[in-house]
Automatic annotation (TrEMBL):
Transmembrane segments: none annotated. This is FRIGIDA-like protein. It holds the Pfam family Frigida. Keywords: Developmental protein, Differentiation, Flowering. InterPro entries: Frigida (IPR012474).
Amino acid sequence: MATTETLRSISVGLEAIDEKKAQLRRAFEELQAHSSLIPSSSSSTSSFTNLKWADIDSYFTSLQSGLQAKFALLKSAKPVPEGPQPPPQPESAANIKSGSATSEPLPPQPESKAKRKASLSVPEPVPSAGPVPVRPELKSFCEKMDSFGLRDFLLARPRERAVIRDELADAWKHARDPAMLVVDAMQGITGDGSSGGVADVTGLRRVSVALLEALMRAKVEIGAQVKEKAMAIAVEWNRNIAAGVSSEGDDDGLEKLCFLQLVATFGLVENDLFNMNDLVEYAVAIARHRQAVDLCRVIGFGDRICDVITKLISGGKILVAVKFIFQFEQTEKFPPVPLLRGCISETKKIGQKARRTGGRSGKNFRQSWVMLCFKCSSSLGDDGPKNNMLM
């Protein structure tokens, strides 16, 4: 278990994340300012030029939320007292026999020494932290079926959403109909003007993703009435997305992520209400998000996952494509080694061209990109493009 000093150190590190993200954003914007040095002819190069800060921010925000959730679990465990603790004094045989305090204690037996040595050399297993205890507010919202209260509670706590999402697993037990609670909280999600009192539609969508994900994880029973209500929302929403009514400013694919999470959580794809070509496009748009692979599995893309991978490759999203290739076991159809080699070759050219103009940002970009490719290829065994990779 963690000591108080360890918890304090972790807390300081987590508090520094926002500052580090700000530094990363400045570096990214500097790279973007030198984008004219990057040739636009190859797909692997376009993976940089197509990259947006929203993609990077979404990735690191996901990591940050996960770390904060684990830290909350760690804090809930009983901390180990700091400093050495005095060992228990062995009770003498004389004291045991007669109760006299003047008797000399017997020397410890060899077995006792061995046991003490073993207890020092082998740490005791740390017990599991167990389910995250639910805070009273969440329990109250669920008991009262207060969907707007639950929604506003999450809207006001963007940095705690990952922790709250884990707490909801226990909170759902106090709700008469958890699925209906979530659907009602999503009022205004389609972006058609009926915001349900929420001006921040983007924030509402982030909250809805957390609620839907928690609902799907809990595997609660979904009744026919609430499923029909979710289906009506999804059909209208899909129509708005196709018409471009609600996708303005959706550069990071958040709207499509929330839509696919709704479809997956309520099993709406079974009714063949949606064109699979549209779902493929949505999957490509959200591919960089943490939930993308799981959503594609739950929805059941089948052979159409190859279309997703093909579009990722043609769009220059090589490393994301490689992730999908391995997750869906498509290495025979899409050999990852040539894809990674292409990334490395192009980044070498970019770095060399940037150095000739005197820019360090191009060199740093090349090193970072090549190291990322190296990490991907490390799982490929002897077939990976490791030889002379950094030359």
